[in-house]
Design goal:
The complex is a heterodimer of chains A (about 110) and B (about 120). Chain A has about 110 residues and is mainly beta. Chain A is about 0% helix and about 60% strand. The termini of chain B are far apart. Classes of the chains: A mainly beta (about 110), B mainly beta (about 120).
Chain lengths: ~110, ~120
């Protein structure tokens, strides 16, 4: 069966520090991958999505970036974090075949001090 | 463009009573509709989907949803609520012609089931 892993589960970072969040998927190949941010436990904002290695589409211009160095690895990064980057970051995957739902990891709660 | 509205921020229901969580959508093509549930500090869990076919869709944990094309709605229902159903529920839509396969999520509805 397919599984998705996100780490770390929680992270506290000072303003201006770099960021790297990692997401990996097991048990499938060529998944569509997504990064979302959820503020205050409510709506989801799509940040990036990827349909293949090295293919990244950005939905919201900001100081975050994403990379997909391997088929089942998706990384969210920042060179200098802002206070407004605090939130709950969720990674999701979806099969590239058929009308399948997205499946989510357990998220990373990021607090910026 | 595609959009989803969940008009209720919170729904309160007594345990054992039926529950409904409302969702309306807007797409230019055929709608693909999804419901997810989120427990505190966890990711979203998939409950059910409507792609085509029977308007009444059954999903996990006894939940079901009814697709109504004329009202552009996809309300989530359960005949008898459990306290453990208390969580945040999200409706999502994808336009069948959306090549990017991206979902648009509603703002979420918090379901509170009281014993």
């Amino acid at each position: 069966s397919q599984t998705i892993h996100q780490w770390p589960a929680t992270l506290v970072q000072p303003v201006g520090s770099p960021l790297s969040l990692e997401c990996t998927v097991e048990g499938t190949s060529n998944p569509n991958l997504y990064w979302y941010r959820q503020a205050a436990g409510r709506g989801l904002q799509l940040l990036f999505y990827s349909v293949g290695i090295g293919q990244i589409s950005s939905e919201v211009p900001q100081n975050l970036s994403a990379s997909r160095p391997q088929d089942r690895q998706f990384i969210l990064s920042s060179k200098k974090l802002l206070l407004s980057d605090s939130g709950f970051y969720l990674c999701a995957w979806r099969s590239d075949r058929g009308n399948q739902p997205q499946h989510f990891g357990d998220g990373t709660r990021l607090s910026i001090l | 463009a595609q959009s989803v509205a969940q008009p209720e921020d919170q729904v309160n229901v007594a345990e054992g009573n039926p529950l409904t969580v409302k969702c309306t959508y807007s797409v230019s093509g055929n709608p693909y509709l999804f419901w997810y549930v989120q427990y505190p500090n966890r990711g979203l869990q998939f409950l059910l989907k409507y792609i085509t076919g029977d308007n009444l869709v059954k999903g996990s944990y006894g939940f079901e949803a009814e697709f109504n094309k004329s009202q552009t709605s996809f309300h989530l229902k359960k005949p008898s609520a459990l306290v453990s159903d208390s969580a945040l529920y999200f409706c999502a839509v994808r336009d069948g012609g959306n090549a990017g396969n991206m979902l648009t999520f509603g703002g979420g509805t918090r379901l509170m089931v009281k014993p």
